[in-house]
Write a structure and sequence with these properties.
- The complex is a heterodimer of chains A (295) and B (238).
- Chain A is mostly helical.
- In chain A, 78% of the residues lie in helices and 2% in strands.
- Chain A contains 13 helices and two strands, in the order αααααββαααααααα.
- Chain A has a two-stranded antiparallel sheet.
- In chain A, helix 1 packs parallel to helix 6 and helix 10 packs across helix 11.
- With 238 residues, chain B is of the alpha/beta class.
- In chain B, the strands form two sheets. In chain B, strands 6-7-8-3-9-10 form a six-stranded mixed beta sheet, with helices on both faces.
- In chain B, helix 3 runs parallel beside helix 5.
- Classes of the chains: A mainly alpha (295), B alpha/beta (238).
- Chain B: This is ABC transporter ATP-binding protein.
- Chain B: Belongs to the ABC transporter superfamily.
Chain lengths: 295, 238
């Protein structure tokens, strides 16, 4: 029964990883850039919500109401001012730019909030600690189910938006061939900016769930980036449903590893990532990099 | 009325100057063929007008206002559409999606999905097919239809028949009838001189980035075209 519980908890944990990964996947899918500041942006969002919670007394989920629009605007401005310029400098420049941005965010957070760890769990109420007990050994936490449901809704909503709306069609056209998209009247730069805005907002959502579920500090971003990156690679670069699947595989690997021995938790996730990378699926991803398109 | 005015336009590819001081005007409703040998600067000139290639010198004015600094997507909204060489359809889109993506920010006008599919009946049964699965002729027809979805006043078509079978070329040139009837101004780049001269009312021949010939197609002799095309007089057989 322990194993069944491990798989269930892994699937729920995978929801959080998928939420972290979806913005990363969207930015890669549309702009072909890997945003190395993604984890730090998520932590920045968590700190913003923490500040709103502390100063206004509202719960972290209510604090998302003003925080998400703020982060959407921040994402839009981030692209217009920083990423758009770096995109013109070739594929390596955005990587270096977002790496620098990650360092700037970490140090700014350290300066503004000091190195103390924080949590949003206390302000979230019963949802942070409550659970449904299914059997003696299996339980479903409210928060885990909420995170997974949110991940499915966000990824499903994004997928629906990409497939069914005119804006989504423009985004897919730009992802396929930005130059041609421009020549049929699509403002590629504006599409990129909106994709970045959505990615930053989803990162904020993930950051808040991280804060409610556990603790965070100014240097939590890179760890979350690694998990998000692993989920994206396991699920297939640029594929949104694949990202959900990748998050779940990573989550299950970690909880099964933890069931064997708590110290194997993170290691098991990394091992699955490396196995996927060495598999034909992983080789096709490397082909993706060489050809610039899926192999 | 002059719709497009190109004045002393220059364009470069790095150190190579592809277009050198080209000047011409295009009247509304005119069909102009741009001919010339490979590397003469035809595609570069067309891409410069479309905003897909930077202007190194000179001015381009369209409908009375200069296009300097106007990005390509805004030129589309002003009524300049470009059908690129190689069609460049979105391969993961169906024919219908390719048309719709171009129609979203289009100027108002007669062209929409319904009227375009009426004008190109061959595309009607293909509307759900992926662009990557179309034949060359079908792709070219889709690319022209996609450009029409933006309701252009000026349509730039690069290498109309390049790489197409004779049957596909016939199909594509049938589209030209639609364009002529709609009164759309067209600049087409064509390697098939016979086709170019029979379709267009006027021809401009580029040679090493300069205009070597600018004349009405009516009454134009073969010698005049050959001289401009190759830059020398052909020796006549004794």
């Amino acid at each position: 029964m322990n194993w069944v519980n491990a798989v269930i908890q892994g699937v729920l944990l995978g929801g959080l990883y998928a939420l972290f990964a979806c913005g990363l996947s969207l930015m890669f899918g549309v702009m072909r850039i890997i945003n190395l500041a993604h984890g730090d942006i998520a932590v920045l969002g968590a700190f913003l919500v923490w500040s709103l919670t502390v100063h206004t007394g509202i719960g972290p989920f209510w604090a998302l109401v003003p925080a998400l629009p703020i982060m959407l605007i921040l994402g839009y401005v981030l692209h217009r001012t920083v990423l758009a310029r770096s995109l013109r400098g070739g594929p390596l420049t955005p990587l270096l730019t977002t790496f620098g941005l990650a360092i700037v965010i970490q140090n700014a957070l350290l300066q503004a909030y000091n190195p103390d760890v924080r949590s949003l769990g206390g302000a979230a109420g019963d949802i942070a600690t409550g659970s449904w007990r299914i059997t003696g050994q299996i339980s479903l936490s409210y928060l885990g189910v909420l995170i997974l449901a949110t991940a499915v809704l966000v990824l499903g909503g994004l997928q629906l938006m990409l497939r069914r709306t005119a804006f989504g069609r423009e985004m897919r056209a730009t992802a396929q061939d930005a130059d041609t998209a421009t020549l049929v009247g699509v403002p590629a730069s504006s599409v990129y900016a909106r994709a970045t805005a959505i990615a930053v907002a989803t990162a904020t959502l993930a950051g808040v769930f991280l804060g409610v579920r556990s603790i965070f500090d100014a240097s939590s971003g890179p760890t979350q980036l690694i998990f998000a990156f692993e989920a994206v690679v396991i699920g297939g670069l640029g594929s949104l449903w694949g990202t959900l699947w990748g998050g779940m595989v990573l989550g299950v690997a970690q909880t099964i590893g933890a069931t064997i021995d708590p110290q194997y938790s993170i290691l098991a996730g990394h091992l699955v990532f490396l196995i996927v990378l060495a598999s034909p699926h992983g080789r096709s991803l490397l082909g993706y990099r060489r050809e610039g398109r899926p192999a | 009325m002059t719709l497009l005015r190109v004045e002393n336009v220059e364009a470069r590819h790095g150190l190579l100057q592809a277009v050198r001081g080209v000047t011409f005007g295009v009247t509304e409703g005119e069909i102009l063929a741009l001919i010339g040998a490979n590397g003469a600067g035809k595609t570069t000139l067309l891409r410069t007008v479309a905003g897909a290639h930077p202007l190194s010198g000179g001015l381009i004015s369209y409908d009375g206002s200069y296009l300097t600094g106007v990005p390509a997507h805004r030129r589309v909204r002003r009524g300049i559409a470009y059908v690129p060489e190689g069609r460049r359809l979105f391969p993961e889109f169906t024919v219908e999606e390719n048309l719709l993506v171009a129609g979203r920010r289009a100027r108002s006008g007669r062209w929409n999905l319904t009227t375009v599919l009426e004008a190109f009946p061959a595309l009607q049964p293909l509307r759900g097919r992926l662009a990557s699965r179309l034949s060359g002729g079908q792709q070219q027809a889709t690319a022209i239809a996609r450009a029409l979805m933006t309701n252009p006043r000026l349509l730039l078509i690069d290498e109309v028949s390049l790489g197409l079978s004779p049957k596909a070329v016939e199909e594509v040139y049938a589209c030209m009838t639609v364009l002529r009837e709609s009164g759309t101004t067209v600049i087409l780049v064509e390697q098939d001189l016979g086709r170019a001269l029979s379709t267009a009312g006027r021809v401009i021949c580029l040679l090493e980035g300069r205009i070597a010939l600018d004349a009405k197609t009516e009454g134009l002799t073969r010698d005049e075209v050959v001289t401009a095309y190759f830059g020398f007089h052909q020796a006549r057989p004794a």
